[in-house]
Design goal:
Keywords: DNA-binding, Transcription, Transcription regulation. Residues 7-67 form the HTH tetR-type domain. This is TetR family transcriptional regulator. The chain has two domains: 1-50, Homeodomain-like (Arc Repressor Mutant, subunit A); 56-180, Tetracycline Repressor, domain 2, CATH 1.10.357. It has helices at 8-24, 31-38, 42-49, 52-75, 81-98, 105-112, 119-138, 146-164, 168-180. The protein contains nine helices and no strands. With 181 residues, it is mostly helical.
């Protein structure tokens, strides 16, 4: 194994962990596997993240950051708040289908970390609360309480799309959202 430059190991580990955790599940992937996939030593992994738990939190935070960028990119093309909300359904579909309908990484993590006080669950709550807040802000002139219903539609479509291995649930959810807003 070649020597990794200082500063590169963390990015390599995070990239490998992201791919492995999402594909195989967090608890199914050990730090040995992540380090090997990243091409770094376990010492480099621990030197950058301290523990597997902190690596999981970093993985979810990075995924949240990328999701926020994607939402911003997709919704920026729409001036109308209603159209921005509907674009979120398209973003969800594109995001989840690109990864082979493995599901929402945040919901997957929640099922693997049942303790509500776990730092992983805090990252999940932050992610879902931010999305709910975005929907609520877009609907503030119309009916911000609809954000609760839209979240249920989005999350239900995300789960159902995994079971069906199809984008159809997002199309149905978007059609229902159009009638709500």
């Amino acid at each position: 194994m070649g020597r990794t430059r200082p500063g590169d190991a963390g990015a390599k580990v995070l990239k490998a962990a992201s791919r492995l955790f999402y594909r195989d599940g967090i608890h199914a992937v050990g730090v040995d596997t992540v380090a090997a996939e990243a091409g770094v030593t376990k010492a480099a992994l621990y030197g950058n993240f301290g523990s597997k738990s902190r690596l999981v939190v970093a993985y979810l935070r990075e995924r949240d950051r990328r999701w926020q960028e994607e939402i911003d990119r997709i919704t920026a093309a729409h001036a109308d708040p209603r159209e921005r909300v509907l674009a979120v359904f398209d973003a969800y579909e594109a995001w989840l289908s690109a990864d082979g309908y493995r599901g929402c990484a945040f919901l997957n993590a929640t099922s693997e970390f049942p303790d509500p006080a776990d730092p992983v669950r805090e990252v999940v709550r932050h992610h879902k609360t931010a999305l709910h807040g975005y929907l609520r802000a877009q609907l503030r002139a119309a009916d911000p309480e609809r954000a609760d219903e839209l979240m249920l539609l989005l999350e239900g479509a995300a789960v159902t799309s995994v079971i069906a291995q199809s984008a159809q649930p997002f199309h149905t959810a978007k059609r229902l959202a159009e009638t709500l807003i």
